[in-house]
Here is the input.
Amino acid sequence: MNASMRLAPRPIVYDSAAPDGGLPTWCARVWAARELVWVLAQRDVKARYRQSILGIYWTVLNPLATAAVFTVVFSFVVRVPTGGTPYPVFVLCGLLAWNFFANSLASATGSLVGLSALVAKVSFPREALPVAAVVARLVDLGCALLVLHVVMLAWGLPPRWTLLLVPFILAIEGALVTGLGLLAAAGNLFYRDVGQLLSIVLSLWMFLTPVLYPSELIPPHLRPLFLLNPLVPIVDALRRTILVGQLPDGPELVLAAALSLVTLIGGYALFKRLEPLFAETA
Amino acid sequence: MSERPGSTRADGPAIELADVWRRFWVQHDQPRSLLDMLRGRPHGRTEDEFWALRGVSWTVAAGDTVGLIGANGSGKSTTLKLLTGIMRPTRGRVIVRGQVSALIELGAGFHPDFSGRDNVFLNGALLGLSQADLRRRFAQIVAFAELEPFIDVPVKRYSSGMYMRLAFAIAAHAEPDVLLVDEVLAVGDEAFQRRCLDRLRELKQGGVTAIYVSHALDTVRALCDRVIWLDRGTVRYVGPVEAGIAAYRASFVADGPRL
Here is the structure.
């Protein structure tokens, strides 16, 4: 054998009695596993469109079809005030944020259970699985953003310069969904009820988030309560920056960012607490 | 043992187990009824504790090759799981110095719908190999598995032999400091098995520390410098291969059948 294959950097000495290094070591671990995350995310995307005729085009068709359904209901049957924005564009923007959240969370939740044979026997950074599930959904998100702009142009709305702020807003949403995904993935390994419960929680959560309606419809005295849901300011900020060309509401978005960061760190900490039990549970 | 250039080995024995105990909870599922659930017994389950390892201590010096032998349920696989770090000891301490690669549950990360080619990169990543290294060694891995004509076929169309050959070829091309092998040499035909043994000997000459778990005592003889015999969670013997195998074999007669 010539040129040797190096293994990815890992702690050189493994000591079962060594204390957990906490957040810095976890971050180093995720960083060291970035290539694995990337390969797993590619696997996710490819696997989703295997044996399908339309393949990747579903990522475009899906949000368009959903938007069409909601447009029929909410602009012809019931009229939702959107402050002058055409409803199809309005709802497509809300769905972009919501679908990324709900689909990422759903695939992260199933990620450890789906590869339980591997989790039970093989040593690899387990957090790579839920994180990759979220990363894989960025493809859909990118497509949705593109589709949205095509539809905007069709309605005579130009792209806004505030689009440049969108990556930051999506980073906040990504932190939120990754934290929840880590927690749900671990929980689902112990009790499959988590996955079942999730679909119920998500359907309720969607109606508590201004996806189909503008956040101005939330009664003002209830708004502080709604702000505990970081998705409220996130969806609001996305609509302002993508559709209207306004800056997001600073204080509300900062609160959402803080809540998301707490969720990410808390979710990861619980994941690491449960990790030693994964192998015998999977 | 000669030190390999660029070795990341730290001081001290490559593997150290100090008074290691490991407990499992064995669940017995019982039929449950709606009435049970209403009575607050949602699981209808009882749990018994089972000690897979009871105060095991041994060390392996860097560069040594050790065979782990023993009957089913003696704690061999549990030991390997403690060494890879996917499980922790209930009591005691496990230390492994150097980068570990495990030939355990080969092909568990394969995606059946993906081609052999895609699975090389996917499985390799799960084993901790970089994509650049995998690209560099790709031809060698495929040649080793003798799968050149089928490398772009989804692995769900592979025979079980082809599947395992590819899995072994990927895992065996890592260059770890510590190699853990669990009963994976019963793969493929005789010619392939010989190539596997050659590859493992090559790693051994390169200075790797290795643990072989096997019921194939001939394989243990062919590869190991020492054996450790585990019996119901305790160490029964540590020492030269021939004497260990003889003692283990003699126990079949002396102890009689179990269960």
